[in-house]
Amino acid sequence: MEFGHKYEEPVAAPGHKAPGFALKDEEGRSVSLYDFIDGHSVVLVFIRDVDDAHTGELLDYLKDSYPRIRYHKGDVLAISPGSVDFNRKLFEKHKPPFHILSDEDCSALKKYGIYNEYDKLVGPCIFVLNRAGIIMYSYEGKNPEDIVSMSDVIAVLHDAMISPLDREYEI
């Protein structure tokens, strides 16, 4: 007997628990989201697998903002659909103080609802997770040069430091 219930995948949106993943970093080591969180907030940044001016600008912007992110008890994970080798070259070129993870099969992009069948990822996307793994903020760039304001991200991280774990943040 079938009841016709349709169960949907959880949505990666503010107020929801972030979908977990384990991906390889620029050195080929496995990094699990929930092992990485370990009691602090995380800024997940999905970047394109293209070494162009826009990707470089975003990585440099994050690198410059990293001390402020750390001050607010946060850390960064960048995720690219590129290979470990591609990400290693990107890492060596820009020298970010955070990992660039490889999502070659686009499983994380799909879990977060940002996968594009034709381009994999159109613009950069950011999800800010609190220390319990709840998505507090998300931003989806509409094109490669559409980069989120870091002051918005810092405001969310500040709020995550002083708020209960289940509170959603709105800008």
TrEMBL record:
Gene3D superfamilies documented for this protein: Glutaredoxin (3.40.30.10)
Biological process per Gene Ontology, one example term: cell redox homeostasis
Domain of life: Archaea
SUPFAM superfamilies reported in the protein's UniProt record: Thioredoxin-like
Keywords carried by this UniProt record: Antioxidant, Disulfide bond, Oxidoreductase, Peroxidase, Redox-active center
Gene Ontology cellular component annotations, sorted alphabetically: cytoplasm
GO molecular function: thioredoxin peroxidase activity
Entry EC no(s): 1.11.1.15
Domain annotation Alkyl hydroperoxide reductase subunit C/ Thiol specific antioxidant: ranges: 14-137
Record flagged with keyword Oxidoreductase: yes
PANTHER family assigned: AHPC_TSA FAMILY PROTEIN (PTHR42801:SF4), THIOREDOXIN-DEPENDENT PEROXIDE REDUCTASE (PTHR42801)
Protein name (database record): Peroxiredoxin
Organism from which the protein derives: Methanocella conradii (strain DSM 24694 / JCM 17849 / CGMCC 1.5162 / HZ254)
Classification of source organism: Archaea, Methanobacteriati, Methanobacteriota, Stenosarchaea group, Methanomicrobia
